[in-house]
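User: Can you write out an input/output pair for a complex, sequences first and structure second?

Assistant: Here is one pair. Inputs:
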Amino acid sequence: MRSPDSPVLIIDGLIKDVGPLASLDGKMLRVVGGLSLVAERGQITALLGANGAGKTTTLECAQGLQRRTGGSISLLGEDPDTAGASLRARVGVMLQDGGLPPSARPIPLLRHIAGMYRNPMSVDLLVERLGIAQFRRTNIRRLSGGQKQRLALAAALVGNPEILFLDEPSAGLDPQSRQIVFELIAELRDSGMGIVLTTHLMDDAQRLADYVYIIDGGHNVAEGTVAELLSSDHSAGEEVTERTLFFDAPAGLDFSTVLGAGLAVSESRAGSYAVTGALTPADLAALTAWWAARDIMPASLRLEARSLEDVFLDISGRDIR
Amino acid sequence: MSNALAGQQAGMEGHAGPAPLLRRVLLQGRYETLAMIRNGEQLILAVILPLLALVGLAVTPLLDGLGGSRIDIAVPGILALCAMSTAFTGQGIATGFDRRYGVLRFLSTTPLGRTGLIAGKVLAVLVVLALQVLVVGGVAAMLGWQPRPEGWLPGLALLVLGAAAFTALGLLVAGTVRPEATLAITNLLWILLGALGGIVVPTERLPALAQSIVHFLPSGALGQALRDAFLHGVVPLPAVIVLALWTVLAGAAAIRWFKWN
C-alpha cells in the first residue's frame, strides 16, 4: 500500500514535443525539455514561469490529457497515461479555460459531476464555501471570470481528491473571489491535500506556495521554498545590495529629500510605498526620524533583500512578464 | 465552518473512488439527453423538420408509383432522417462546442473518462432516437402508416446500426475541425444527404448516375435498408455491410484523429 508520506506527484526528466509545425518547416517543437519536480502531500507546490514556459503542458502530461514524449511521471504512484477511473477519482483538475459547459447551471452541473464519484464532497457545502449560491440560477455563459473560476474549483474538488491541480487559479479573479479561493486552497493544504498549481504571478507564489519550481524554456531552473529562493544569490559572486523597503502610511507623503541618492520611491496604491535601491542604515535612520518628527506611525513595515521577481530575473536573464 | 471541508477530506480517507462504470455512463447519458432535448435548434432538426417532411411527402405525389402507399414509403426515410439529425448533426455540433469550451478535456479527467464520455453520448443518441421513433411513428399512424409487423425488429436494429455509423461520422467531424465548421458541414450534409442521398427520396427516384453512388453512402444504405424492412419485411445484406463498414471506418478514423483540445 502507498505510504501516507509518499509524494503525490513525481516528474522525472519530462519531455514533450509537439508538431510537426508548419511554422518550423515541419519540425517538432520541444515544449518541455527535461523537467523534474516532486510534489508532497499537505503542501502547495507552485510552478512559476512566464507564459509559454511549459507549465500547462507539464500539468496536462501529469493529468493524462497529453501524452509525454519522454521521461517518467508517477501520479499517486501510477502512470497517468495508463490510469483508469480509480486513479482519476483521486485527482482533481481545474483547467485554465474552466472546461464548463456554457449552457449549464452551476448546481445541477456540480451534482452531475459529484455523481461520478462513490463518496463525493457535499455539493451544498462547496456551494456555501465558494459563494456559488449567489449566482446559482445563472447560466455558466453569463458568469463573471471570478465566478467561473470558483465554480471550476468546486468542480475540481467535488470528488474529494488527494491531489488537486490548479492551472492559473487566480486568472480573472476579482479581489473577493481571490480571497475566497486562496483561503480554501490553504485550508485544503492544511487538511493534507497535495496541491500543484501554475502561476505567472510572483505574488501568488509568494502568498501561497510552500515550495516553488521556477520554470523557464521548458525546464526547471531553480527550486526551493520562497524563503530559500529569496536568500540564495543566483548572480554568483555578487553581494546582494539591492533592497526594497515597503510600508503603509498616509497617502501623498514626500520624503525623497531625506533619502540618499539613487533610491527609487514609488507609491503603487495610495499610501502604499516602496523604496528600492542600495539602502543604507543611514537611509533607514533618516526616514524613521522624519516619521518621528511628523508623528507618523506606519501601518506596516517590511524590508526585503530581494523579491521572487529579482530571483527570476537573475536566473532567466529576463523579466517574467 | 472553516474546518468543514477539511473534516470531510479526512473522513473520506480510504473511501474515495469512482462510482460504478454503469452508473457513470447512465448519468452522462441522462445529462446529454436533457441537454439535447432542451436545445431549441436541435428540437427543430430532430422533430419539427422530419415531421414537416413526412406531411409533405404524404400530401404530394412525389412518391406515387413506387409500389406502396405514399405514407408507407415515406416513413422509413423519415426515420432514417431522424437518425441523421440526432446522431450526426445534433450530436456532432454539441460535441464540437464541448470541445471548444474544454468540457471534453475536463470530463475526461473525472472518473467518467474518455470512454465513458463517448458511451454517454451514444446512449443519449439512442434515447433521443427512441423518442423520435415514438413521435414520428405516432403521427405516421394517424396518417395511415401500416408497416409490416415482421419489419419492426430488423427495422429498429438497422436504425441503431445507422445511428452508430452517423455517430461515428459526427464525432469524426466534431473532433477534427472547428465547431463553426462542424456546424456548417453537418447541417449542409443533413440537407444534401436527406434530399439527394437516398434518405427522404428513395434511390429509384434519383438520376441513374447518382443511384450507383448513393448505394454506398450511409444515407442511401440506411434509407434503402429501412424501406426494405418496413415495406417488405426483409433485410438487404449489401446495405447492412455498407453501414457496418462506415461505422468501423469512421469510428477508427475518429479514434485516430479526434483532437480533445
